[in-house]
Amino acid sequence: MVNPRFPRSRIPAFKLFTSAISISLCIFFLLSFLFTTHSYSSHQHHHAGSDGGVAHGFESIRRSILALKTDPLKPRLDQIRKQADDHRSLALVYSSYARKLKLESSKLVRIFAELSRNFSDLMNKPRYRTLFSSDASSVDESVLRQLEKEVKERIKTTRQVIGEAKESFDNQLKIQKLKDTIFAVNEQLTKAKKQGAFSSLIAAKSIPKSLHCLSMRLMEERIAHPDKYSTEGKPTPPEVEDPNLYHYALFSDNVVAASVVVNSATKNAKEPWKHVFHVVTDKMNLGAMQVMFKLKDYKGAHIEVKAVEDYKFLNSSYVPVLRQLESANLQRFYFENKLENATKDTTNMKFRNPKYLSILNHLRFYLPEMYPKLHKILFLDDDIVVQKDLTGLWKIDMDGKVNGAVETCFGSFHRYAQYMNFSHPLIKAKFNPKACAWAYGMNFFDLDAWRREKCTEEYHYWQNLNENRTLWKLGTLPPGLITYYSTTKPLDKSWHVLGLGYNPSISMDEINNAAVVHFNGNMKPWLDIAMTQFKPLWSKYVDYELDFVQACNFGI
């Protein structure tokens, strides 16, 4: 049945119209094909020959048909172009920043400017410029791949240069690298300091060959002529116990050092025959010391030479430090021989000096018992040189104090806090951390005031508490500061100038004005490491005219 809305006569006309449209489209595609093939073939024939042209012709036909919608290589091309532009801009920014900061300036500016120019030159090549032309209907994939390869190579180079130059622009990175460098240098410095301290300690411990030779030759003389030098069975000279004379205490195992102290004191004394020197050494050096002080008369001065073993009360049951020196922990502390272990505590390296193992170093706390008939005595270390008459010390009013000493504090240095552990409650409760320290080396002691204040008992109390070294490290100065905390009389600094064994900057005016100069430190004047500008102050009192000294080539 026929639909009344579409009469039968109109159906053939509709089919005719549809067929006409189809034929028109076919003609259009045919003409497009012929035109494209002809153009592409002519172009390829000029560059690559007819065979290549045919192959590319078919590829172009395929592209042309797809280009009716969108060429799939276009997004890829746009991405490559964007990457190139971004890195070109980045190179320009770094070039501008380098110019602003004036960093190596010319070099970095040139590098980044050249990188930016490379990107521009690449994109302006005729071969690649056609890819970006507005009338290009398709993208040649082989050309695109070559462009992509070159762009990636330039991007890689740009990033590498930026990475290497980033330190010049990134302040935070600069700071971090500087911190790392400082840390590394500090590590090296700390290691060098430890090794230096250890080497210095070894040098300070050493006994020069000439000094060892002298001790042996003097001992040989003592053994060869025992009656000439022995004092056994002989009465004690009255001058040794006469409180009206000027008495000195000198404790040493160094023959030459002890003789220099006595020599310098007697040569600068106005009335040397009124001076009495109490020299105490150990049993091993007693013979050499007896011979040394018998070889000359020292301008009439009186010299008593004894061994520490002659004082029978000095034993481990009475002397705390002797008992402590027998402990395994303390012996391990002193005799540790591995560098990495021996240098753990660089700050207190000096306390590993073996002199602290000797009771000679602690005799200074027993003066009233060693010399019961004396009222006053001057204690001298064996590394000092006397340059003036010292009898003026006996005229000083001690104001009831026990110890006359030169104070060493200045600013925040050489205060009590540097010598003892103020985190310990006993130390914190008893002492002021800002109290001024003083020096051992030349100390004038009022023995009557000492006995009255019971200073030896005070010393024993604190030494017993410090058996584990929790109150202070080793040495005799910290317990001295504690024992004479409120009983020390400050002396004028010209009496005692310190530092000639470690400080090269002491002025000669200060040294020449001093009554006593002290070679405290590791660079003792009898060692090869002594400071040459100060050594003559000591060596001029060595008895080079003695045959024993000459035989051992004891150099100046």
TrEMBL record:
Entry keyword annotation includes Transferase: yes
PANTHER family in alphabetical order: GALACTURONOSYLTRANSFERASE 4-RELATED, GALACTURONOSYLTRANSFERASE 8
EC number: 2.4.1.-
GO CC aspect terms: Golgi membrane
Location of the protein in the cell: Golgi apparatus membrane
Protein name according to UniProt: Hexosyltransferase
Listed Pfam families: Glyco_transf_8
Keywords, comma-separated and alphabetical: Cell wall biogenesis/degradation, Glycosyltransferase, Golgi apparatus, Membrane, Transferase, Transmembrane, Transmembrane helix
Transmembrane segments: 12-35
An example Gene Ontology molecular-function term: polygalacturonate 4-alpha-galacturonosyltransferase activity
Origin species: Psophocarpus tetragonolobus
Known pathway: Glycan metabolism; pectin biosynthesis
Stated family: Belongs to the glycosyltransferase 8 family.
Top-rank lineage group of the source organism: Eukaryota
GO annotation (BP), single: cell wall organization
Membrane topology: Single-pass type II membrane protein
